[in-house]
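User: I'm curious whether this sequence folds into something compact or stays loose and floppy. Could you predict its structure so I can see for myself?
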Amino acid sequence: MKIFWLWYLVSSITCYYFGESAQPYFPPQIVFSPDDGLTVFAIDEINQRAYVTYPFTPSLTQTAWVMQHFPYAVPDSPQSKYYVQLSAVSPMDSCMYGTYWKYGGNMLNFFPSHWINGSSFEIKNYMKFNYVMVHSTNSSEDEDHWYSNVTCRPDSGEIVPCQEMYFEKNTNIPRRLVEVHRAQWKVIQVTTYFTIKSIGKPGDKYFNSIPEDWFHICRDDDLEVLYNPQRISLSLHESVKVQVWLSTPPHRIDGNDTVIIRWKSINCTDCFTLSPKELIFSIENFHERQTLTITRVKNTEQTMLIPIFNGGGFDLVRPDAYPINIQ
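Assistant: Here's the prediction. I'll summarize afterward.
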């Protein structure tokens, strides 16, 4: 029993020492590809900015940027004070963005998930290990090998570390990552090889392609209309009250911070009456629930009321994404 306890104590101390020693991560400033050049990341922890690009389809390219101080933001707007993530698809000239603050930022992300903490964002190291990593004493002459202190059993049957990381010898230059993943109904071991393009501050070329007018031409992914209830059943000459409010403040454009919302039926223009005919929201009252009363005056098949937006940055929001469904 004493021998077992001594072995356990020594093993624990050894694992703790290697796990807590100067474990290398990715360099804080690096440009690399995890898939042989298809995807390219440019990460700058020091200046809190990052870039990624990859083929969205054979003919389209997806590019995204995230920064603490996003260029060309409207002064005194939330986008000028908080992290912003912008994505664009070319050559479609389609773009959208999200702002990481208490009223948004949870829907849009093209970067490592551990950079997000609720509605806040911080550009951190690209790699986050899920386990305590132990430095191997059997590393090769040109590599440092780190492996997790937890093992997994992929479908191949062998017991392997759940995560392994290989670096160029005595550096933090990553070479490959080996992880056990669940892919649909299979548990497999996957190897990711890293192609390093540069170490040090990424070139400005990765960030100079941000359109200067992104605030005005790109859709704000945080702008949403909320309903309670959103699906209603309405008989002839019956009325129902629907609460309407916004998830985030509308934009202030040319000194005006209001959005006016009206609704139209998609297949019957005179089947319903609405009171009031329009609702107005601003930066001050966006979160206050206003009441829309819907009355059926003519029978029709199942339909939807689609919003019509005017102002507040909602002109780029897809109306068909925020219907009121009526049965």
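Summary: Residues 31 and 198 are 5 Å apart (CA to CA). The radius of gyration is 26 Å.
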